[in-house]
Amino acid sequence: MTEPQFADTGDEDLPRTLRRAKAERAQSSGAAPAGAGSKAAGSATPGFGPPDGTGRDMTYDDGDYSDEVTVRRFDVPFFSLMGFLIKVVLAAIPALILLGAILYGAGQLLKIFFPALVQMEILVRFPN
Predict the structure, then answer these.
(1) Which residue did the predictor score with more confidence, 9 or 25?
(2) No. of H helices and E strands in the chain?
(3) Is the pLDDT of residue 14 over 70?
(4) Letter string b/e over residues 63-72, b meaning 16 or more CB atoms within 10 A of that residue's CB
(5) Do 44 and 59 meet the contact criterion of CB atoms below 8 Å apart?
(6) Within a 10 A sphere around the Cβ of 22, how many other Cβ atoms?
(7) d(Cα 93, Cα 98) in Å, to the nearest integer?
(8) Which of 11, 29, 116, 127 is the most buried (most CB within 10 A)?
(9) What is the value of pTM for the model shown?
(10) Which DSSP letter does residue 88 get?
């Protein structure tokens, strides 16, 4: 199996939020963010420009994202979690019905195209 192809720097795969946070830290310290001005202003993809409106392209900054984060607790109110799980169960019902219909149709196609397949029938008999 081939190895997945990743970017050499690794920064391109980071979410835009982390790139913005890095740029804000660089601005607050007085240094220009890496990659600022590396492209002409306005050459960025329309709709994906920087949030501060400066015209700088912060898409490819070479920042160091070595901050480690560990989630130790996820506080969700019980009734909110219960409501979400009920919605998940209700959303699964049509999916199960659709899956059953697909499997039934596949079985019928197998019976049509391969009539020599062994058919199994379960008989349930009750005594008189």
Answers:
(1) 25
(2) 2, 0
(3) no
(4) beeeeeeeee
(5) yes
(6) 22
(7) 9
(8) 11
(9) 0.36
(10) H
